[in-house]
Amino acid sequence: MLMKRKFAICVAIVLVLLAVAVPIYRKSILRTKESLLKQNLFTLRQVVDEYTSDKKKAPPALEDLVKDGYLRAIPIDPITGNDRTWRLIKSADHTGVFDIRSGSDLKSREGTVYSEW
C-alpha cells in the first residue's frame, strides 16, 4: 500500500512538472521560429537588393537568386515549414520580386500577422 502511494505521488509530481514545462517549451520553439523568420527575411531582402543593384532589374523569381549564385538554396519559411510558401511582392513594373513576406496568416506573439513582417 505504501509503495502504491509513493508511486502515485511520484507520478503526480512528474505530471505537474510536465504541465509547467510543456508550455515553456512551446513558447521557446515559437520564439526560435520567429527569430529565424526575421533572419531569413532580412537575408532574402538583402540578396534581392544586391541582385537588383548588380543586374539593374529585380529577380524574376526566388529561384533566380539560387541559379545566379546569390543564395545556395531558398530558405525555409520557419512558420509554414516550406520554402515554396513565401509571398512575393512584385516590383512596380511587375517584372520581378521587390519584397518577400511569410506565407503564414497566423498571428505572432506580438499580435501581428507573420505575412505583414
Describe this structure in words.
- The chain has 117 residues and is mainly alpha-helical.
- The protein has a domain at 31-108.
- It has two helices and two strands.
- Strands 1-2 form a two-stranded antiparallel sheet.
- Strand 1 (87-90) and strand 2 (97-101) form a beta hairpin.
- The longest helix is centred in the first third of the chain and has 54 residues, at 2-55.
- The chain is elongated, with a radius of gyration of 22 Å.
Q: What is the count of DSSP helices, taking H or I runs of 4+ residues?
A: 2
Contiguous uncertain segments of 5+ residues:
none
Question: What's the pLDDT, averaged over the residues?
Answer: 94
Overall, the morphology is elongated
User: Reading side by side through the largest sheet, how are the strands ordered?
Assistant: 1-2
Counted beta strands: 2
